[in-house]
């Protein structure tokens, strides 16, 4: 698990370099990816991989909202490198590999898993953004 978290740090930091993030934020982007990998591995022991990606991406988005507030940068600067460890690229590869081998049931299984993980990532990000907007509007109404 430690090696996966370590390499997730480097993958996320490398992704932030490719996305032209400023040098002083590269370590934060790497830490977001390492956090996501750790949360995914930890929660995968208790729930399915789809729920594990939902939980890890929701918590990642929460941390990225906080970092966005503190650094005055858009939260996508941290979210995009941070989700790299849970993107279902290997499942898509396995699905196409099974298609090439004419193993259609395996391809359907891998493809369905990839779609479900991708949808759970999107749902986590949308749910977090909705909750943040809701809390901000409640805060503004309480101040008035």
Automatic annotation (TrEMBL):
Major localization listed first in the record, in broad terms: membrane
Entry's family note: Belongs to the ThrE exporter (TC 2.A.79) family.
Membrane topology: Multi-pass membrane protein
Transmembrane segments: 25-40, 46-66, 78-96, 116-138
Domain Threonine/Serine exporter ThrE: 5-130
Cellular localization per UniProt: Cell membrane
Signal peptide: none
Keywords: Cell inner membrane, Cell membrane, Membrane, Transmembrane, Transmembrane helix
Record's protein name: Threonine/Serine exporter ThrE domain-containing protein
One GO cellular component, as annotated: plasma membrane
Species of the source: Vagococcus martis
GO biological process terms, semicolon-separated: succinate transport
Family matches, as InterPro entries: ThrE_2, ThrE_Dicarb/AminoAcid_Exp
The keyword Membrane is assigned to this record: yes
């Amino acid at each position: 698990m430690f090696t996966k978290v370590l390499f997730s740090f480097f993958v996320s930091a490398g992704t932030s370099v490719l996305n032209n993030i400023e040098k002083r934020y590269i370590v934060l982007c790497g830490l977001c990816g390492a956090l996501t990998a750790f949360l995914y591995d930890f929660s995968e022991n208790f729930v399915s991989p789809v729920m594990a990606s939902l939980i890890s991406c929701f918590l990642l988005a929460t941390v990225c909202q906080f970092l966005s507030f503190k650094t005055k940068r858009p939260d996508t600067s941290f979210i995009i490198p941070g989700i790299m460890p849970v993107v279902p690229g290997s499942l898509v590869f396995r699905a196409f590999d099974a298609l090439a081998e004419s193993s259609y049931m395996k391809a359907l299984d891998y493809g369905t898993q990839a779609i479900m993980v991708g949808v759970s990532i999107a749902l986590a990000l949308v749910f977090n953004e909705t909750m943040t907007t809701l809390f901000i509007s409640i805060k503004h109404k309480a101040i008035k």
